[in-house]
Design a protein that fits this description.
Blueprint lengths: L3 H8 L6 H14 L9 H10 L6 H11 L9 H28 L9 H10 L6 H10 L10 H10 L4
Length: about 160
């Protein structure tokens, strides 16, 4: 199919450097097991297994459908570039959340206690009372005297649209 989808798939090329495009084309060609210029859902499943990220059939189908713009059941190189850009954005968000989490994890133990949160808030010029900190911990889905893990933190960031 042409039209809008072809234009979208060509525009995405502008978001990559020439060297990146060459490397991505090499990767695409490696993943395209039958060398037909397209990646099937089976080939995508094999890719995910190879990079040690096996996915359920449902999640794989969701991922596939998100980038199969022309809905022809195959991912061409333009759609592959879109998938890679989405992955790049996902990694950047994950890195930003990790950086933010580490800022609040003042003891560097991979968890944020109420005391950590209070200290970190003071450091950034946003002092909070014990009651306010406790409210934040509850908002994060953490019971009293517990701590916020990175998983909790990611969910909170998503829920509050921080990242």
């Amino acid at each position: 199919m042409g039209g809008k989808y072809s234009k979208d798939k060509n525009v995405i090329r502008l978001t990559f450097y020439k060297q990146e495009l060459q490397e991505l084309e090499e990767s695409f060609n490696l993943f395209d097991e039958n060398k037909d210029g397209k990646i099937s859902i089976r080939e995508l499943a094999n890719i995910m297994k190879r990079i040690d990220m096996p996915m359920s059939k449902k999640d794989l189908q969701i991922m596939f459908d998100e980038v199969d713009l022309d809905q022809n059941g195959e991912i061409d190189f333009g759609e592959f570039l879109i998938m890679m850009k989405k992955y790049e954005i996902h990694i950047a968000r994950e890195d930003e959340m990790r950086r933010m989490f580490n800022m609040f994890d003042v003891r560097g133990q991979g968890q944020i206690t109420a005391a950590d949160l209070k200290v970190a808030l003071s450091k950034i010029g946003e002092p909070a009372t014990d009651a306010e900190v406790e409210g934040m911990m509850v908002e994060a889905g953490v019971e009293k005297d517990q701590y916020i893990t990175f998983s909790h933190f990611k969910e909170l960031c998503k829920r509050l649209s921080l990242i």
